[in-house]
Specification:
The protein is an alpha/beta fold. Helix content is about 30%, strand content about 15%. A hairpin with a 2-residue loop joins strand 2 and strand 3 (about 25-30).
């Protein structure tokens, strides 16, 4: 399996992009929890990342609210299910861990959802920062709570479970 990586600047610090067989498989922040060792990222090669870099630049400029780059998400079936739910959370909205568990048909599995959320290998693009506690609290984020708060503020997110069909309490945070 061929892996390559590059590092780009962002308003949230350097981001390491990793491709497996030419497809984005990871986006890590500095000091991110569950970040594998640098030597597992492969050779430095920016070529596979043109579209990813363009879309991230547009996102950070406030010109893009959805990403459409191909992803290669490697994880357990449960983790991949959680990550698919993350991709369904619209820009500027949030969901609670319990809401994600319910959407997966696993009521009561909010802790397991939280663990899977924390292992999301493609931060920002797979928006794990949009998941918050049921009371609106900013619980855990692999990139750090400060970054989570800044990303949510950047996107204008202000309520738990906002949006159609969210079923959230609407608690301000």
């Amino acid at each position: 399996m061929t892996r390559s990586h590059t590092v780009i600047d962002s308003p949230y610090g350097p981001l390491t992009l990793v491709a497996t067989e030419g497809v984005l498989s990871a986006l890590y922040m500095t000091e991110q929890r569950h970040r594998p060792p640098q030597e597992t990222f492969g050779e430095v090669d920016a070529r596979p990342f043109g579209a990813v870099i363009d879309q991230l630049d547009e996102y950070f400029a406030g010109e893009r609210t959805e990403f459409d780059v191909p992803l290669r998400l490697n994880g357990t079936p449960f983790q991949r299910g959680v990550w698919e739910q993350l991709l369904a959370i619209p820009y500027g909205e949030t969901r609670s861990y319990g809401q994600l568990a319910d959407a997966l048909g696993k009521s009561g599995a909010s802790r397991a959802v939280g663990l899977a959320n924390g292992k999301n290998p493609v931060s920002i693009i797979v928006p794990c920062h949009r998941v918050i506690g049921s009371t609106g609290s900013l619980t855990g984020y692999g990139g750090g709570l400060d970054r989570k708060q800044r990303l949510l503020a950047f996107e204008g997110a202000a309520r738990v479970g906002t949006g159609p069909g969210a079923g959230g309490a609407g608690t301000l945070f």
